[in-house]
Write a structure and sequence with these properties.
heterodimer, A: Fumarate Reductase Cytochrome B subunit, 3 domains, 15 strands, 39% helix, B: alpha+beta, 7-stranded mixed sheet, two-stranded antiparallel sheet, 14 helices, 11 strands
Chain lengths: 770, 475
């Protein structure tokens, strides 16, 4: 498509929704009133109307003023706020009147100077009212396009577009595939931008006045009421209309949704729902243009800030509507949600840069900054000379940056010349938790590997800012920034990137498959490696020595003596042993599968966990049955070392294993029915008394934590239990290797194996002789 | 002794392990089979038996009746077509208003397109499944007059002309050799072109259904349906009811014939089933690809100064308005309609509904249906106050002579209704329930498309106090 045609199309599309935007309809019951200006005279122009003077005739402006939340643009609002109006500087009219203004042209006024009924288009704020500041909030009609004001929007106080630029949300009922935007995989996105908007949940459905009697829920109180589920006391509608509380409610998802009943399919749903914000899975990949840097230290040709996006791919000068927008993968951080619970929440980080005056810390007004860059609608020659790296006479996204000291010095000087005292660059790092633009459940994140895997969205690096304007690092605003646990690293482009710490820490989440506990994992692996190397070395030496000697030492036929079979292991002993071996092997293999979930070599995580749990039950039951067997019979004895001469026998065996076995020395004497040699006894004592209980208990705890979150809280989550289980697993694996090898070190290579399979051991007859 | 015991034990072990493995394999197989059965496509493409008639039809046909004779020689039962509405152009006997029970159909009804067939057979019978219905002398009892080819030929070269006879130059032999189960082309050849042109009448039937995209029609694209997969046939009686020519709902086809228990993603959607026809949400718009006629003003006909343009003005027919990708109009409908019959008095100051849908908000059997409403200004007798059926086709008809008075006089001979000599034009409307061109479920209507600020539904007109999302549905 050629450029003019595209521009025409964009223009046509932009024109559409503007005309279609319906906000307030005629209010049939609001009393007729006279619009006044700030001096109390009847206003003749819409701009002159003073909301304070007009509305406070009936509504209690002082109460409203004192009960108004400051909007997202609180800093600008505090600094540049004029007269009445909390909520980021907005007035009654902006939020409550059609198109944010009252039309006082003579045809709308009656003889008494009051607005005629048809002109009283006021009421509860409609989405379009909110949209004028907060972001793209679409309507059901018209084709969704990005308005040109979206870029450089931050120049107006309070008008932050934070829903779209901050969260990547476009709160529209329309299907993404029907929009004008170029979205990656658009044809498959036959889903609404926001499932709530699609179901006619409006902004005010959630963000309502807290003392609105029509709202049965009193969210703040509900937490504190001990014996009742709701407080039925209400003020009257009339009282409310005079004094509406403008600290709007911000209920979480759970105030309407019963998460537990909706997630039957989810393994360990109690745990998942306790540690995950709903948004983590239900806003998996916003498709709105989301910013990482809003740079008001420079001025675009339109006089606004330069906005840099995370998920927009466009050529120079390409309109946002024609640029390719990719799904934005948010940063997941642990954050205390409004209900006081710490959960993993998706956020976006936006760095907002601006010029401030070094002496007063006041923001430099946008027109002044624009004047430092522009002259008569074009870049000043001096600016062009300093910034235009490729000398094409234009400043593209990569050039319009204060990324060198020379550029910064140039603009500092120009601002100083314009009368700004000690111009300084200030960067603020804002955290925007994702809360809007919820995907329908068909598109919620259901992929376990999305989190439970190394390199998942939990551990992937998150670019913070592409470059640092003026070399200044963005700082979290007072009130604390995101609890970012990890490293902030510089990038080759001069920006910053965040690398999450994957090791668990006290009070932080341990995510199976993604979190790596350094010492337990490394030490465990080292022990396993040592054992594996040890047996390999031992075995190799044995093999070589045997080859050199040219005979198999002490094979019964080698000595030529008579042999006989002696029963060593009973049927049950063999059964429990092989059950233990089988379930243990399954546990180790599936445990590795869980530990390395996401590599996908074993199947989906829930299946692997299921097999792991099943094997664990088999192993545990088997362990207790065999314990009973050993206690009830005298079989336990063979595990308990004979104290008399124990050390001597240990030394004999050690000496045999380390020396004798290589040169064909005779196996240390052992009664034919003796099941374990002293080395094995020591090993098994440790195994059965320490490792088994530790693994069974820690494994059970992991399961319990997944099921009963209150237990999890008491135990401090998985951060202690999981590394212990992990370390134990490494020891188990090491034992397995060692055990399998030691099987071959009997009188003959197959001796032990044979006895455990058939129950009989072949011994040389003469040994039976006294 | 001990050895035999060990051997014995071994056998048992082996048996045990084998049984276990078998059980496991059996269970897995059963589970897999169940999953597969569940995952099967909702509509399994029918295997349609086809016998290649080229092998048995070798003679050269001189007349179309010869073809029919040939068909009947092997399929004598197929003469039953003579008793179906495709041949008689009359339905079963019904009672309408105060009229005596009567059979109605295209043969004797008045509509607000080309008005009436009587007297105009030469043109209208182009779509009659028979040969030679040129006037009232046509022999409905002669099986040779049945046109088998129009529904069964697959050659794609068979075209009908005046009085339903094959057009000049049609290769009857080739057509006869190609016969098989009716294809989309066979049905659409008439049903997409009713009213004198492509997509004129129905709004939800046009030739785009020959090769539709998913959005045009999910059944005929994704699932490969033919017309006859829903419009099943017994004794050549084809299921389906068009409310333009019949009044009752018997022999109709319902979505629920296949979609017995529709499961929506939200229980709140399921509550709509009591008040909405499936079509209301699943066919958001009609005439998606090809514009359909929405308005026809006969009173403007005959003006030779205007330029002919099939979508705006034709001298023989008057002025038109066409609509494309149109939002339907919604009405309560109990799946029966009233019917204007020839001779019924009209009130020319009001809009006359030719087939008003019955039902209302108070009737539990009624549901809200989407309709194409075709509006027209058509002639009526200014003294007798009934709609007139002019003679239009042929060399004496209005389309040749452009003399209304003359056309009504001649038309009266065929309709049997006296013409007073004074005529005028009155507003009429005809209701066409929309039921074809079902869109894929991803594109079905969502909440906001009817509730909230949308104007798709006129709640007051439907009898609600306001948006039922807020004021509550019918009780």
């Amino acid at each position: 498509m050629n450029a003019p045609l595209r521009a025409l199309l964009v223009a046509a599309a932009v024109a559409l929704p503007v005309s279609a935007a319906a906000q307030q309809s005629v209010n049939p019951i609001h009393p007729a009133f006279t619009p006044f200006d700030a001096h109390g005279n009847a206003a003749t122009r819409a701009e002159d109307i003073s909301a304070t003077m007009t509305c406070s005739v009936c509504h209690d402006a002082r109460y409203i003023d004192a009960h108004t939340m400051l909007g997202a643009g609180s800093h600008e609002a505090r600094g540049g706020r004029e007269g009445h109006g909390g909520h980021g500087g907005a007035t009654c009219i902006q939020c409550h009147a059609d198109q944010g203004r009252l039309d006082v042209s003579p045809r709308h006024l009656d003889k008494a100077g009051q607005l005629v009924r048809e002109a009283i288009k006021i009421g509860t704020p409609r989405p379009a009212n909110c949209a004028s500041c907060h972001g793209l909030i679409g309507e059901a009609q018209g084709v969704l396009v990005l308005p040109p004001e979206l870029e450089g929007a931050s120049s107006t106080a309070g008008r932050t577009w934070s829903l779209t630029l901050g969260e990547g949300a476009i709160v529209s009922p329309q299907r993404m595939s029907d929009s004008f935007l170029d979205l990656q995989g658009k044809s498959a996105l036959a889903i609404p931008w926001d499932v709530h908007a699609a179901k006619l949940v409006e902004c005010t459905s959630c963000h309502y006045a807290r003392n609105n009697p029509a709202r049965a829920r009193v969210d703040d109180k509900q937490q504190e009421l001990r014996y009742v589920t709701a407080d039925p006391r209400r003020q009257s509608t009339a009282e409310f209309l005079v004094r509406p509380d403008h600290q709007l409610a911000e209920p979480g998802c759970r105030s309407c949704h019963d998460a537990l009943s909706a997630h039957d399919f989810l393994p360990y749903r109690e745990r998942h729902l306790e540690v995950l914000a709903c948004q983590t899975c239900h806003i998996p990949a916003p498709m709105g243009p989301v910013a990482d840097l809003i740079d008001a230290t420079v001025s675009t040709l339109s006089g606004g800030a330069a906005v840099h996006y995370r998920n927009v791919e466009r050529r120079n000068g390409e309109p946002l509507n024609a640029a390719l927008i990719r799904p934005f993968q948010p940063l997941l951080i642990e954050r205390v949600e409004p209900d006081g619970v710490r959960r993993l929440t998706p956020v976006n980080l936006v760095s907002r840069y601006r010029w401030i005056s070094g002496s007063t810390r006041e923001a430099v007004p946008a027109p002044l900054v624009a004047a430092a860059f522009l002259e008569q609608g074009r870049y000043a020659p001096a600016v062009l000379e300093g910034f235009d790296g490729n000398h094409d006479g234009l400043l593209d996204d990569a050039e319009l940056r204060l990324d060198t000291p020379a550029k910064t010095a140039l603009i500092t000087a120009r601002l100083a010349a314009a009368g700004v005292a000690a111009p300084t660059i200030e960067g603020t790092l804002e955290t925007h938790p994702l809360a809007h633009g919820v995907a329908p459940r068909s598109h919620a994140l259901r992929d376990c590997d999305g989190c439970h895997a190394a390199g998942s969205r939990l551990s992937a690096a998150f670019p913070v800012v592409p470059f640092l304007p003026g070399g200044v690092a963005p700082l979290p605003p007072d009130g604390g920034g995101p609890p970012l646990a990890g490293k902030i690293l510089g990038t080759p482009g001069g920006g910053l990137t965040f690398l999450r710490e994957t090791a668990p820490a006290a009070g932080r989440m341990y995510v199976l498959g993604a979190t790596r506990h350094a010492w337990s994992n490394r030490l465990g692996f080292l022990i396993f490696l040592a054992v594996a190397l040890g047996v390999t070395g031992h075995g190799s030496v044995r093999y070589l020595m045997t080859k050199r000697a040219g005979h198999v030492p002490h094979a019964p036929h080698a000595t030529g003596g008579a042999t006989e079979k002696v029963r060593v292991f009973g049927r049950y002993e063999r059964l429990w042993h092989w059950t233990m071996a089988g379930s243990g092997l399954v546990l180790i293999v599936t445990g590795l599968g869980i530990h390395n979930a996401g590599s996908g070599w074993m199947g989906t995580l829930p299946k692997v966990v299921l097999v792991h749990n099943a094997a664990a039950v088999v192993l545990t039951v088997n362990a207790f049955l065999s314990l009973f067997y050993h206690l009830a019979t005298v079989a336990i004895r063979s595990f308990i070392p004979e104290p008399v001469g124990f050390m001597k026998r240990v030394l004999e065996h050690v000496s045999y294993q380390s020396r004798g076995i290589f040169v064909g020395a005779p196996h240390p004497p052992q009664a034919a029915t003796e099941k374990l040699n002293p080395l094995q006894q020591v090993t098994y004592l440790a195994l059965l008394n320490v490792l088994f209980p530790v693994q069974i208990v820690s494994g059970t705890l992991i399961w319990v934590i997944g099921r009963w979150p209150s237990f999890a809280a008491a135990l401090g989550g998985l951060s202690i239990v999981a590394p212990v289980h992990n370390f134990g697993a490494w020891l188990f694996l090491s034992f397995f290797v060692l055990h399998a090898y030691l099987v071959t070190t009997g009188r003959t290579v197959g001796d032990h194996l044979q006895s455990m399979v058939t129950g009989y051991r072949t011994v040389e007859s003469e040994e039976q002789l006294p | 002794m001990s050895q035999s015991l060990a051997k014995h034990a071994k056998t048992r072990w082996t048996l045990g392990i084998l049984t276990g493995v078998l059980l496991l394999a059996g269970g897995t197989a059963a589970l897999r089979a169940r999953t597969k059965a569940h995952a099967r496509a909702p509509f399994e493409k029918r295997i349609r038996a086809h016998f290649d008639h080229a092998a048995v039809i070798t003679e050269k046909f001189e007349s179309p009746q010869a073809v029919t004779r040939n068909c009947l020689s092997c399929h004598p039962k197929s003469a039953e077509v003579m008793h179906t509405s495709h041949f008689t152009w009359l339905g079963e006997e019904v009672r309408i208003g105060n009229h005596a029970p009567t059979r109605i159909g295209k043969k004797n009804l008045i509509n607000n397109f080309c008005i009436a067939t009587a007297g105009n057979e030469v043109s209208c019978m182009k779509c009659h499944a028979g040969y030679g219905w040129a006037d009232q002398k046509f022999d409905f009892g002669n099986a040779e007059n049945v046109d088998c080819l129009v529904c069964h030929e697959h050659a794609g070269t068979y075209v009908k002309g005046q009085a339903g006879m094959p057009a000049k130059g049609v290769d009857l032999t080739a057509a006869a050799r190609s016969v098989g189960t009716p294809s989309r082309d066979n049905c659409l050849g008439c049903h997409a072109y009713g009213g004198g042109g492509q997509a004129v009448k129905h709004g939800d039937l046009d030739s785009s259904l020959n090769h539709p995209t998913d959005e045009d029609d999910v059944h005929m694209s994704r699932l490969g349906f033919l017309c006859v997969d829903c419009h099943t046939t017994e004794d050549h009686k084809i299921r389906g009811r068009a409310f333009s020519v019949s009044v009752g709902g018997s022999h109709g086809i319902a979505c629920s014939d296949c979609h017995a228990t529709p499961k929506h993603q939200d229980a709140r959607i399921d509550t709509h089933l009591a008040t909405l026809a499936c079509q209301s949400c699943h066919i958001p718009s009609f005439a998606k690809k090809l514009p359909t006629k929405a308005y026809w003003d006969w009173s403007k006909a005959g003006d030779s100064s205007r330029k002919d343009d099939p979508h705006h003005y034709l001298k023989i027919k008057g002025e038109f308005q066409y609509e494309q990708d149109t939002v339907p109009e919604y009405r309560w409908f109990d799946e029966t309609v009233d019917r204007y019959l020839a001779g019924d008095r009209i009130d020319p100051t009001k809009v006359t509904s030719i087939n008003p849908p019955r039902g209302g908000i108070g009737d539990k059997k009624s549901r809200i249906w989407p309709f194409k409403v075709h509006r027209a200004r058509q002639p009526y007798d200014a003294e007798n106050l009934y709609l007139l059926a002019p003679l239009t086709g042929g060399k004496d008809g209005y389309w040749t002579r452009f003399d209304w008075d003359d056309a009504f006089r001649k038309g009266a001979a065929f309709s049997g209704l006296a013409y007073s000599g004074k005529y005028a034009f009155a507003e009429t409307e005809m209701y066409w329930p929309i039921t074809h061109m079902v869109t894929p479920k991803e594109k079905a209507l969502g909440c906001t498309e009817c509730h909230g600020d949308s104007r798709r539904m006129d709640w007051q007109a439907l009898g609600y106090a306001g948006d039922p999302m807020k004021t509550g549905g019918r009780r």
